[in-house]
Amino acid sequence: MLLAIAVILPTVCLLWFMTQAVKNERLAVRQKLIGIYKNRLETSAREKLSDDWISLNTSTPSTDGFLVFDSNNELSYPVVELDETVSSDDTFDLASKLEYRENDPNKAMAEYRRIAENADSNSLRISADISRARCLRKLNRIDEAISHLRAVISKYDDSDKYVRVHKCRARLLLLELCRQTNDDDFLKELSDTFDYAAAGMATDNDMVFLGRKSHTDKYIPSSLQIFMLNRFIDYAGDMKETASITKKIKRAHRLIEIADTSLMLSNRYTEPSFAVNKGIFRLDTTEQFYGKKARMGGDLHLMAFKQEDMVNWFAGYLEDIKQLPAACAIYDDKGRFIAGSQVAGRKPFIKAPLPSGYFPGWYVELYIDGTAFEKAARAQVTAYVFAAGLVIVLMLILTGFGGSLIARQARLNKLKNDFIATVTHELKTPLSSMRVLVDTLLEGNYSDQQQATEYLQLISKENLRLSRLIDNFLTFSRMERNKQAFDIVKTDPSEIAKAAADAVQTKFNRDNCQFSVKIDDNLPSAMADKDAIVTVLVNLLDNAYKYSHGDKRIELKVFSENNAVCFSVADNGIGMTGRQAKKIFDRFYQADSSLSRQAEGTGLGLSIVKFIVEAHKGRIDVESKPGKGSKFRLFLPVLRG
Ligand code: ADP
After folding, report:
1. CATH number for position 391
2. Which of 588, 606, 610, 631 to mutate to test the pocket of ligand 1 (most atoms within 8 A of CB)?
3. Angle between the N-to-C axes of helices 222-238 and 243-268, in degrees from 0 to 180, rounded to the nearest 10
4. Which of 103, 304, 361, 576 has the smallest number of Cβ neighbours within 10 A?
């Protein structure tokens, strides 16, 4: 019980410690991995989402739309609509009347000229000049109209936004006239029209606005810009394809798109209230756009990017993170998935802010492949389990060892007690009968000399029995201390058999006992300690005598069989059951162990026999049936060669 507790308690403790250690290890590995992964996220962000990357130089994608607010928080791009392009003027009304109602271009033209020369505002003058060109056209003086329009375009300065609108009109008219007349300069005019419509919006390589100066002095109303660009696309489409035309058509499409988006943005953001911080944030628009604000000069810009742009931007970053065995997903500041690969239904291993100042509120989620994490932890856990297993096995072995030591000690104690009890009991009987006999003789209580001799013979018999008993005890005691040394030499088996037969002869011949000895001729020599084997045979013969009643028939045979010499002792006694026969070679075993039993004995004889036989590398077996008798066979190895 104590031993069991001694094992179970530490085992349970050990297992508990182990599970704790395993848990801790998992946690530690997890923590370590988180550290490594976060580090990777940061280095990748430093490299791939750096200032260089974000400053939108020519290699970064262009904005998809933008707003520009000037220092007075007025929207300067896109130009939504101008309040009034032509200020109403009586003289202008008159000219228009002449032109349209009276259908007199000549008179109207003269009136327009007058306005162009005398009007106060540039916008009124340019408007009149354009009207003059229109009248020239009506008079079919196309060439004059063309050269007049060219002169008008170069005459007026662009700084006035109203003038810019009129210049657009002049250009559109000029373009149409040139087209009609197949003017040699049509291509140039077409190109100029594009440039004018795109003014302030296109750079040499691409349309990139972030980080650039805004061109509030060049913008024209977006609807007009879109119209001009569409006209350009129409006309350019009819032209012979050249690289520069194709490039410009592409740009025109893109600019229209930007203008559209910008108009859409201007509806949503009427004042610069979007001013958050320097980062990129989700725009509050129905379509998915991301914004970034930038201050340039006194202007505040809001640039808008489509979600695809963002996805493209993150490509490099995601590629870098791919080195980690984890799936990575990027979410915007409104918690919307943007790029990477989402893992549905799995808890992210890491959810961390996107480590870049440009993405406030954005975050990255890393989904680790369970097995990768397990793999990392498993090696350590295996080591723990192995160590714990080893300790438990060691503990079990030690406990088993301790247990067997204790059991052995207990058995020895029992043996000692049994031994003392048996010795006392066995010595008492012959000693007391001898004392009675000696007392009788001393007191002279015998009738004649023959009776005295009989008594003396009885005393001698008891004495002999006593000697044998003591011999057995001594052998056993030596055997216990492992001190029995045998002198195993080449011996003649028949001599052993004869010596044993002599030792029991007198006793056996006395009562109604038939004792026969059969020794084969030409027996091979055996390797044996003669005295020891005689002790064995005497013990077997004694038992045969002791455990047979009535007409005893005892037979000692010696013969050779299978490279061994066999001594067989058979009787017709009480025999034993199979179960008893299995135990008789154990120390102190007696089939009938009651102290009142008939035959005297200690239960030691056969254990001594077995010990001696084994020391000779021999073998002993028994065949027995209750009531029929027993047959013991002892085999001794013969000398070879
Ligand atoms: P003991 O001193 O009791 O004879 P042994 O070791 O010589 O001790 O024998 C052990 C037991 O084996 C005996 O008590 C007896 O029950 C049984 N036994 C031994 N030899 C015989 C035999 N020839 N016939 C029946 N039983 C025997």
Report:
1. 1.10.287.130
2. 606
3. 160
4. 103
Whether residues 468 and 614 share a domain: the answer is no
CA angle 410, 476, 594 (to 5 degrees): 70
With a 6 Å cutoff on the Cβ, whether 605 touches ligand 1 is yes
Show which of 255, 287, 304 is a domain's final residue.
255
Half-sphere exposure of 121 (CA within 13 A, CB side): 14
* 253-276: pLDDT as tens digits: 988 988 899 999 898 888 877 655
Domain that holds residue 440: 374-475
Alpha-carbon torsion, ordered 541, 547, 551, 555, to 10 deg:
-30
Q: Which of 255, 273, 293 is the last residue of a domain?
A: 255
Give yes or no for residue 630 CB within 6 A of ligand 1. Answer: yes
- The reply to whether 223 and 110 lie within a common domain is yes
Pocket test for ligand 1, best of 584, 604, 610 (most atoms within 8 A of CB): 584
Tell me, yes or no, whether 333 lies in a domain. no
Tokens of 545: 């005598």
How far, in Å, are 331, 439, 441, 602 from residue 435 at the CA level? 112, 6, 10, 22
Residues 447 and 595 in one domain: no
Residue reference for tokens 């998809």: 64
Same domain, residue pair 109 and 247: yes
588-597 long-range contacts (CB < 8 A, ≥24 apart) are 588/415, 588/418, 588/419, 588/422, 595/425
Cβ-count burial 535-568 (b if 16+ within 10 Å, e if not): bbbbbbbbbbbbbbeeebbbbbbbebeeebbbbb
The average confidence (pLDDT) of the chain is: 83
Answer yes or no: is pLDDT of 86 > 80: no
**164 and 243 in one domain?**
yes
* CA-wise closest residue to 515 among 468, 560, 557: 557
> What are the structure tokens assigned to 269, written together?
């953001």
Whether 521 and 452 share a structural domain: no
Domain containing residue 573: CATH number: 3.30.565.10
Please tell me if the CB atom of residue 591 comes closer than 6 angstroms to any atom of ligand 1.
Answer: yes
Q: Which residue has the tokens 């373009």?
A: 175
Number of domains in the chain: 3
Q: Which residues of 40-64 are buried (b: 16+ CB within 10 A; e: fewer)?
A: bbeebbeebbeeebbebeeebbbbb
pLDDT tens column, 124-167: 899 999 999 999 999 999 999 999 999 999 999 888 888 999 99
